Write the structure tokens for this entry.
Amino acid sequence: MRATQMLANAAKKGPKKVPVPVEMYPLFAAIGVAVASGCFFTYRHFAHDQQLRLWKNPDLSVLDNVLNESEKSEK
């Protein structure tokens, strides 16, 4: 009787869980570190680069200096 219960339990149909192999954990960790560092360095580049203009900032514009120099050289 015990054997039939074990066979019946094995034959039950239901959602099969596919376990993630243990060998994949280091790969997940490495990809997580790579994505996190990529996000960090991209943010740092956009936030702290002095020559990159993302917004209209008149303090970073050298156009006024160039125009003023050209006016002075014409006079």
